[in-house]
Amino acid sequence: MKPATLLLTAAVVVLNVLGNFALSWGMKHAPASAGPILSLLQPFVILGIVMLIAWTLLRIKLLGLADLSFVLPVTAVGYVLSAVMGAVFLHEHVSLQRWSGTLLIFAGAALTGLTPAETNGKPKP
């Protein structure tokens, strides 16, 4: 796989994790009196929305460069990182069952990343 594709994959994962984190942080710290519409004007909420828009656009670009069967499992590492960010920085309780699911996602992503891509049933060089 080309280095540019790997870099784009990393950017997609990071933007997803940081965008969701910023959105969650902003919503948790918005004044209760703000309501759902005014909460959208909180700086971290706006930052999260902008990051998730960038994530969507870069993911579209990535899907044009790499196989769907590679992109979806590898970018699923973002779920693992989101759980870690939520537990560490947002002090969210992540149950043993959720950590187990997170580890399964990580294992699946690792296996997918190690599998060579194929074209018409033949491995790519």
From TrEMBL:
<dbReference type="InterPro" id="IPR037185">
    <property type="entry name" value="EmrE-like"/>
</dbReference>
<feature type="transmembrane region" description="Helical">
    <location>
        <begin position="40"/>
        <end position="58"/>
    </location>
</feature>
<protein>
    <submittedName>
        <fullName>EamA family transporter</fullName>
    </submittedName>
</protein>
<dbReference type="InterPro" id="IPR000390">
    <property type="entry name" value="Small_drug/metabolite_transptr"/>
</dbReference>
<keyword id="KW-1003">Cell membrane</keyword>
<keyword id="KW-0472">Membrane</keyword>
<keyword id="KW-1133">Transmembrane helix</keyword>
<keyword id="KW-0812">Transmembrane</keyword>
<dbReference type="GO" id="GO:0005886">
    <property type="term" value="C:plasma membrane"/>
</dbReference>
<dbReference type="GO" id="GO:0022857">
    <property type="term" value="F:transmembrane transporter activity"/>
</dbReference>
<feature type="transmembrane region" description="Helical">
    <location>
        <begin position="70"/>
        <end position="90"/>
    </location>
</feature>
